[in-house]
Amino acid sequence: MSPDWDAATYDRVADPQTRWGAAVLDRLPLRGDETVIDAGCGTGRVTQPLLERLPDGHVVALDASPSMLDAARLRLQGDDRVRFVNANLLAFSPADVGAPVDAVFSTATFHWVLDHDRLFHNIAAALRGGGRLVAQCGARRNIDQLTNVVRGLGVERPGSWLYASVDDTVDRLGHAGYVDVDVWTNEEPTPFDTADQLRDFLEAVCLRECLVTMSRDDQRAFLDEVVERMPSRVIDYVRLNIVATRA
What we know:
Structural class: alpha/beta
Shape: globular
Number of strands: 7
Low-confidence stretches: none
Number of helices: 9
């Protein structure tokens, strides 16, 4: 099991994920009265603009990390349109989210889920017929350059992610009962102004699982070496974009 996230630090550094989330949200057509699951809501930075598009609707803010969900509750406190659910995307039931819902929205989350066949089936079970899935996550070749730098230091990133291909994702969605499927990738090189900003981001997001067994001094030395060996202060993100309809 992955350790729980440091939600406060993630919230401080997650400008890239928030930017991607805003772009993904633009792909979700809404009247304003729907019920939408934010699958992997994190600290609620993208849940907030989602709520702004649902003046007469509701959001199910779902996340497996208790600390992330606590941060989202704090950010969105007092808004009775939000239902918070602490659950794994492979394990939640339709009853947990008040299914059927009109749409499922997700950004920067699905690559942390190792079984995409089960993931898409589980989401389909929560969607009404004609409901939409609009999502983005890490794609094949995501952060390859960074991973190679880490490997050059004799460290393998723990394998708790799945960077899927377009073809595999199209097949999985079809088998799970989706139609009008559109899947594509785009490169999203993400620069950082300073070495400290890059180091903080790597610690909180990309390399957090690498650091779990290290002492604090070893963590600092390792992160310094990674930043030093990177060709530039740019993380080579590649995103997998998903738009599909529940049949």
